[in-house]
User: Fold these one by one.
Assistant:
Number 1:
Amino acid sequence: MSTPTHFLSPFISQPLKTPKTLALIFNPKSSQFYIPQINPKLIHSETKPIRRSPRKRSFGRRSVIKKTLSQEQVVFTAPISDQPEVGIIGGGMAGLMCALDLEKKGIRSTVFDTGMHGLGGRMGTRFVEPQRYVFDHAAQFFTVSDLRYAELVNGWIEKGLVQQWKGIVGEIEAGGQFSPLPDSPTRYIGVNGMRPLADSILSETKMVEVVRPCWISAIEPFNGMWHLSENGKPRGKFDAIVIAHNGKCANRLLATSGLPLIAKQMKRLDLSSIWALLAAFEDPLPLTFPFEGAFVKGVDALSWMANNSAKLSSTQGGPHCWTFFSTAAFGKQNKVPQENIPNVTAERVTTQMLEGVEIALGLSKGSLKKPTYTRVQLWGAALPNNTPGAPCIFDPQGRTGICGDWLLGSSLENAALSGMSMACHIADYFQSGGTNPEGYAIGLENEYHWIRGNDIGQFPGLEV
């Protein structure tokens, strides 16, 4: 695809406007959309951002694509501040590591996260009181293959935040046949769950502000800065911003942002949907082999099961808190708005996944004892099915970047490495003074390729 030619002057910082007749073209051979070459017009930088009425916005898939590909391109030419600040939207592993490494380079940042109970995104842990149930309901464990990540993990181990998961993990076939996996590569877990690990990552920082729960609903360029807001409430202005989340919320945010190249890459992402079922039982499950975690094979509704109580040593003598994950196919078949799951859907998914547990364990239908507690959650944007293979994406003209596991693959390690790479790239760009923006563009034109992995993600070094 040809990159649009931008004509700059010192009096113009943003935005560049593309023709109203811009077309979306589909290439059947590559199954990709692309944009024909355009000749943008110049818009004076002092023009205030136009605030459109939310009632006029439509964010259906076709609407988002149309808005994404016909929007103006923001071009900043104003000098970078002597003490630049970065706004990071998303407090998962990638966003947290980006903030942490920006501080190491002397750059302030603010992390905006939607978490009601804590940071972490898909590093979620649910604590249920007063029963004292504990469930890791997203990332289950992680492995290490990169030396940079290994150094980070060793630091967490020294602080008592991470430990090896020494329990038996393997594969279970429908009918109950279990095969343990090798102990190598080492499997790691958060000592008290994944969310406490996420909450601790920025606990000792002095140049990072965390704002949560916060849903950034608009990003607008004005006077050489990005202005962020939450439903009309100003949330600060920044020299650069990082989008550290994905899915429909990110697509909506970018649809009228003035970042068509960033938005285009985000729209190419294909994500799976996964149901998580949390269930507490009074008695141990009738296992043929005493495992703590298992990749489930041959069961339509189930891809993973793990005993949180054993893994986290959170209870002795009961209750027994299990996390069950669906297959991606089951998630797709039963997908609903994750913010408002109908009761009938929640009940059906719970029933079918518990039946899947019976099939996996080789139990007769209806013989599994009823759990004392259940809760289902749909991860509507769970894991990437494709990736551009870039450690991060950065639009230097719009001073905006993207980081996340999906840029390299679906693992915590890749999320961390992406955040670290994003921080390094932004720091280098700031150091340059922004005088040669084209030299700092990365990932804007990368083609996507499909990736392989388990329904619950990739674990570098682990073959399942």
Note: The two ends are 37 Å apart (CA to CA).
Number 2:
Amino acid sequence: MLTLLVNLLSQTAEGPSQTIMAHLNSWLFLAIDLVLIILCVLRYIHSALKYRQYRFDLHQRLPPTYPSLIPFLEPIILFLWDAPKFLKGATSYAGSLTSTCIHFFPGHKILFFQDPETIQHIWKQSDKFNTVRMRVYAYKYLFGMPKKWASVYEADDSGPFPKPLQGSNVAPEKRIHRFLAEGIDKALTGPGFAPTLSRLQKAYVNQMSNLEIGQEWSEFEDFRRLIHMTTGQSTIEAIFGPNLVRLNPDFMEDLFQFDRALPWLSKGIPRFIMPTVYRTREKLHDNFVTWYKYARENFQDHLIYKDGDGDPFWGSNWMRQRQKTLAHIQDDITLASSDLGIAWASTENMVRNTVMAMIHILQDKNLVHRVRQELHDSFGDQDIKDIDPKLLGSNPLLSSIYAETLRLHVKTYTIIYSSHSNVPLGRYLLPKSSVGLVNSHFSHMNTDFWNTQNGLHPLDSFWADRFITDPADQSSGPLSPERRKITTASATQIVSREHSGLHFSTDGLDGSWIPYGGGRLMCPGRFLAKNSMIFTFATLVSEFDIEFKVDNIELESKSFGFGTDSPKKPVPFRIRRWRRE
């Protein structure tokens, strides 16, 4: 650029002396350009050699810095242009997953941990990580929490676990993240789980009945919207009760639109650029406030269901406890922003995964037949709505379809951060106040780890049986033959005693199948998501014929790092009751 500018100026110069000076200046700037290029190349070569040498140093330290030709600018541009491609290259070395350090700004680095061994260390040390930054960012930028109250959440650096993080001095009564985590755990992994799942099942059956699908074909414009308005709404009713949606008929549609805009909100796009999205979020807040007022006026203790958890106004003990505690210390809009986070987190990725599972099943007529046959062999002529979803979840084929869908389509980050101390992670180290990321997608595509049956079932394709292990078939199961060889003999003996026939297995996958994270960072909603997802696709396949009206379904990429794949465009389809022969 400098050379071009000098040449243009030299053409306008007058006289021989000016021409000579212009050419001298031109050569001078050209020399400067060349020196800068050479310096960049030499720096890159030095960084690359240091990066390679670092790989063979087994002392515990930071992951090696990923080399770049133009510091800071190059990784930012490549990341923004195509994050999956850039990170795939940055987190692999000699064909294997590794960990690396990327400098995006001077003084600001992000550590990407992707090798399975380090990830297993992360899960083991997960009680030392502080998730406050991530939570507060989500509350403020995604769900619209007022800054005043977001700062209250930010001030609590004690963590969500029973024991406060080392170095924290937050008083017990101000441990808001612990209170929130305790409520979530009781609702989704403790005594509230079974009643919530039962309510979800009943609500879903009612939703499908309301569609009045008969023996003749009925046509719809968007398959994802069907799952959102049935399975998604059933989940909302199971947690919040029926009145949130009844009082606000547009709630589910607004939540649908909000989900589609969430990747843009996560980037901090301001209101004046996308005002409609902000108005939709505010409308959802108002929906919650309307529901709060109604429930406060009508709820009485004697209305709690016999299961001790549900009720017709607050929906669940989880919501009642949140009202008793949070409503006294923050305003309704703040509480609504937090509840919007629960509504989104409990529905949208589960909806997306259900959609993707159904796409894979319906695109394979043989798999449709197998699912129907499995259900008949296991449950006979029993009506699907009367089957305990947990029993469906114990079926090897259904569980494998579920797990393979998450392996192929969940592409989310687990964020790790230590606010008070360095955290050892085996070979590597997470320094105090540094941010680390683990992306599920690269672990799920690790060719060194996963079984492809010698390339017959590539990792970028759906294989319904990938997670089914047959003790009589050494080529079965999720682990590659090489990875299986390093499995300890004791673990193999335990597995063989527990399973004498075909079985679903995630044994040995702790650092590689990570759609929900791991350790104490694992998503507490995983059990509800699994049972809801399997119950939905088992019901749809066993009760209905469904045909998509498009041959190729393109997936959107903007959700990378944020959640689950979903169709880029609406998927039109037709549906009718299955005519059993």
Note: The first helix runs from residue 2 to 11.
